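# step 3/5: fold
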Amino acid sequence: MHNKTHRLIILSLLLGMGILLYIVEGAYFPPLPIPGAKLGLANVLTLIMLVFFDSGDCLRNVVLRSITGSFITGTFMSPPFYFSLGGALVSAVLMIIVYKYFYGKFSLVGISLAGAVTHNLTQLFIAVLFIGHFGVFFQLPFLLVFAIITGLFNGLMANFLVERLDILNLNPNSRLG
């Protein structure tokens, strides 16, 4: 990064975009036929942050996006908040680990797929805690198919954007090229 102010501005813009995507996806996209399934468009920003920022910045973005988005949508401290925060946090940690240790063996698409599947599995485990019944796992095959579709799309989108952003030389330590 050029300096601390520039870095803070970029991080703030990424957080703002993530919150906007969180709100738009939750409020304006039609409900999907699979309960709990979402496109996860804000995860594109998480993937971009894996490349250009450190893991702490990435995790802060995920947590702040979930908390702020839930305040705005009125779901703070409700079950959807815990599903969102838990899934986002666990999947972000996994994506950070996979990126840090296996980037090259896994592309951003592979990392996105791992994150999408982890997000859905985490949400199902959280649902078991709320409901107290393992019947929610009957949704697993449907959620996994949806996770593959959305993870693929989000990974391709992130890869496309990272290639364009790398031209701007935002991060001299980028692992691309």
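# step 4/5: annotate
The helical segments are 4-28, 43-52, 55-73, 79-102, 108-131, 140-167.
# step 5/5: archive (pending)
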